[in-house]
Write a structure and sequence with these properties.
The structure is a homodimer.
Chain A lengths: L8 E6 L3 H12 L1 H8 L3 E7 L14 E2 L2 H6 L5 E4 L7 H10 L3 E4 L2 H18 L3 E2 L11 H7 L5 E7 L2 H13 L3 H10 L8 H4 L2 H15 L9 E2 L7 H9 L2 E11 L5 E11 L11 E8 L3 E8 L3 H20 L22 E11 L4 H11 L4 E8 L6 E8 L2 E2 H12 L4 E10 L3
Parallel strand pairs in A: 1-2, 1-4, 2-3, 4-5, 5-6, 8-10, 10-17
Antiparallel strand pairs in A: 7-9, 7-11, 9-10, 11-12, 13-15, 13-16, 13-17, 14-15
């Protein structure tokens, strides 16, 4: 475990794309500072890539397409994993940890699905696995949750953890663009990928939510536990509704402790009041808002993606893991000692906004209100406007008090089946109480 | 160094005031969680207080007024120092570290003046000294700077790190109160002490600036290195000027790398543009804004003071230090390997705003502009308004481009000695470029 005295800490890189190439650059450009901070040189001794193409700034002699052979080398102290994917990455990192190598990874999908296996392998071998870059890019959030708040009781973590969707929603608000146009612009600018599914359907945010909830609540939450809705269904009407209510639409990763002690973890487009600190997070920025029993409300913000910011987070972990190796120790591991269970998504309670078109005649509002009352869903505010394009119809917007999702959905189904409501009812969560 | 197998980690508390009593409460109320996170029980075995008065929730048998005897006990693993002050605290903590005890402290003044001595004592003994609570209360900023950003190159840290002064300035903006009234209100609400000197004269913020600069730039900056101006001279006119310029007045702790590589560390009332993330930090909240080469811009915000939030930061350090002891290791220490020197305060460059009353006649503006030009101070914007109360005079507001403080002051002295300017010129720094 301890690197031999006087020798450098020997590092191998798996993956040399947007982030990996920046990590390689910093290892070379800032080598003197890194050596001073670690106490030994950090030596990059191998780089595994998918193709044999050369990489600018990387010694061609270091390149290999055989990641497994690189991981199996016995002269390597630390593996930096930026290749992504589940297979063969999981096997490679498990082998690396088992053979006593420390691991730094930014692979949120892998951690959200197989974190337990990796954390246990690290614990058994007495080595580190660090992953600050897996959530919210350059923003330090993993270490604050794992160490700074470890003496407190975290009650909620709410985050804007996907820059692509935040950019798209921000554009819809500021330029009036519809979803398709805002997505196309994000793709043109490189903020969204050609296949944007993982971002816009909330998969990326859900993996990060699982990681945040695991740390915040000292348990193991996996991707499959996360209730997820993306932004592809967000319309210009939703944006207009938000603005009328003094809110903005954000894709919120929301992790909290339910009244029964179980853990609610979801990703949903949410109406966030303009007065909430998360409402001001613009463009491709990320932010994580933490509530705890003693510390109160904290917020962390910064660039959520990009090669250079993500590389900063990777290098912070590399230096910390390297310092530990020089001293022959491992840092504090996970602390997953609780098993509170996951809240049934239908029982997750929040405010909701129901937008519907109703017949404009006496008695309708009374019947809608009665349907809500029968399910104990209490009304916080009602707005009714004449729908200009639809004679004899009006638009009704109802904000509920906090109520379980299933109860609200049951009322919605009942109302949609009635003669009073035309078409479907748009349901959006509303942050706050 | 390693606590004996199976035994708990034995903790003593020096000081049981606002923060100490909350630390004692949490050690008792959250004992089960803390035990699970550390892997052993945390046992509070002694509490040193100034008087023999009993403390609610603390077993009277634990109380002592003899702090030195408590520190000298050989059955204690970890000292939590919340008594404050320089003497006898420095001696007590030096003795504690030398005898192999880990230390957690919130004592910013002590660290800013004698940090080097304490860090060296910890390093020699192979034990931890942690101090997350010393800067910005509950906000995790020490650990992110020391570990998360350790692979990056931090170029600036700007913080609102004193809640008392932020509350007073915020009140002056929102209610139009003058300084004396806003201070009196802060005192009535318990945000300011009866003797507010340490807060309003910037001493508290300066100690925090020294700590932040030391960590950010991997060097040793002490309180005496910090150029400091408090808020007691901030007038309603300054507030009005700020608002006319689209700014707010904030007491900013500003740590940055100068062009020659030296470190500029200062605390000054500063005009912060409303578009800057720090401008939105209201009331007694704190925030720290970090710029680094790779990560870009990050911001951390939260409650900057108060018993319970500060206790959260203390307990995070206690759990981390206790985990380290259970495993027989120490965490990463300071990394003060650079000695870039401190920028001469006169050479610190920033934008400035000069507010003055001038004779309202032809040629005056030309002469004022010429005086600035002779010192190479370039003008970014000029506003001139008739001063209604003063016949034949006008108010002139000049915002400069970035210029060294001494050059601006020299121009100010020259203008104040001329017939064109009536009275003194008010000089305020302006954040940004």
């Amino acid at each position: 475990m301890m690197s031999s005295p006087g020798a450098g800490v020997r590092v191998a890189l798996l993956g040399c794309g947007t982030v990996g190439s920046q990590v390689a650059r910093i290892l070379i450009e800032q080598a003197d500072d890194l050596r001073a901070r670690v106490g030994r040189p950090l030596a990059l001794v191998g780089v595994a890539t998918r193709t044999e193409r050369e990489r600018p700034g990387v010694d061609p002699a270091l390149l290999t397409t055989d990641a497994a052979a690189l991981v199996a080398r016995d002269d390597i102290d630390l593996i930096i994993e930026l290749m992504g994917g589940i297979h063969p990455t999981l096997g490679l990192l498990t082998d690396a940890l088992a053979s006593g190598k420390s691991v730094v990874t930014a692979n949120k999908a892998l951690l959200a699905q197989h974190g337990a296996q990796l954390f246990e392998a690290a614990e058994s071998a007495g080595v580190d696995i660090y992953y600050e870059a897996a959530v919210a890019g350059a923003i330090p959030i993993i270490r604050p949750l794992r160490e700074s708040l470890v003496g407190d009781e975290v009650t909620a973590v709410k985050g804007i953890v996907n820059g692509t969707t935040n950019y798209i929603l921000d554009q819809m608000h500021t330029t009036g663009a519809d979803y398709a146009d805002a997505l196309a612009e994000a793709q043109a600018l490189g903020y969204a990928e050609a296949d944007p599914t993982a971002d816009v359907e909330g998969e990326d945010a859900a993996a990060k939510a699982a990681i945040l909830a695991s740390l915040a609540f000292h348990t193991r939450v996996s991707l499959a536990d996360v209730d997820r809705e993306g932004i592809s269904g967000v319309t210009s009407d939703d944006i207009a509704t938000a603005e009328q209510l003094g809110c903005v639409v954000k894709l919120l990763a929301d992790c909290s402790v339910s009244a029964d002690g179980s853990i609610a973890v979801g990703v949903h487009p949410t109406l966030v009041p303009a007065t909430h600190p998360l409402a001001g997070i613009r463009g491709a920025f990320n932010a994580v808002f933490v509530e705890s029993r003693n510390a109160g409300q904290l917020m962390f913000m910064g660039p959520g993606a990009g090669g250079s910011p993500t590389a900063s987070a990777v290098l912070g972990d590399v230096v910390t893991a390297a310092r530990n190796r020089v001293r022959g120790v491992a840092g504090p591991g996970e602390s997953a000692y609780t098993a509170p269970g996951i809240t049934d998504p239908g029982k997750v309670a929040s405010r909701h906004h129901l937008g519907m078109v109703v017949r404009d005649e006496p008695g309708v509002l009374s019947r809608v209100a009665a349907a809500l009352a029968r399910r104990q869903v209490s009304i916080q505010a009602v707005r009714q406007v004449q729908a200009p394009e639809q004679d004899a119809h009006a638009r009704l917007g109802i904000t509920t008090h906090i109520a379980p999702d299933a109860d609200v959905r049951a009322v919605v189904a009942e109302l949609e089946g009635s003669d009073d409501v035309r078409g479907t009812i748009r349901v959006l969560r509303v942050e706050g109480e």
